[in-house]
């Protein structure tokens, strides 16, 4: 099992410290602070192992949840960047000029729009 974790660590960026990496993920950093508060019994109200286990389990669940959300945000951002780099994707054609509309002309031709009045009166 130690070999498995070594491979995971090798894939990380060794030039950045854990603190630097957590700064890039403030939500995950806050969850880690909460977990450490439970471990250190910062509130001083945990005296039994069962309560400590319950709190650690809940904090770890929340850390895992935030880690997955962070991963998903990163994946979505990378996909958006990949799609944006592909030619022809997300390019909008310029609108064709309408010969009937001048710069200060109304949006619709009033004679066409109100032509029903001449037919019904």
Describe the structure.
The protein is mainly alpha-helical. The chain has a domain of 72 residues. Helices cover 64% and strands 0% of the residues. The chain is built from 6 helices and no strands. α3 packs antiparallel against α4. The longest helix has 37 residues. It is elongated. 1% of the residues are buried. The model has no long low-confidence stretch (mean pLDDT 77).
Number of helices: 6
Q: What quaternary form is this?
A: single chain
> What is the rounded Rg?
30 Å
Low-confidence sequence ranges: none
Biggest beta-sheet profile: none
Overall body shape = elongated
Structural class: mainly alpha
Strand share of the residues?
A: under 5%
Question: What is the mean pLDDT?
Answer: 77
Distance between the amino and carboxyl termini: 89 Å
Order of helices and strands: HHHHHH
State the share of residues found in helices, binned by percent: 55-70%
> In total, how many beta strands?
0
Can I get a quick summary?
The protein is mainly alpha-helical and 121 residues long. Helices cover 64% and strands 0% of the residues.
Please give the structural blueprint.
Blueprint: H1 2-11, H2 18-23, H3 26-39, H4 49-85, H5 110-113, H6 115-120
Helix pairs in contact: 3-4
List keywords for this structure.
121 residues; mainly alpha
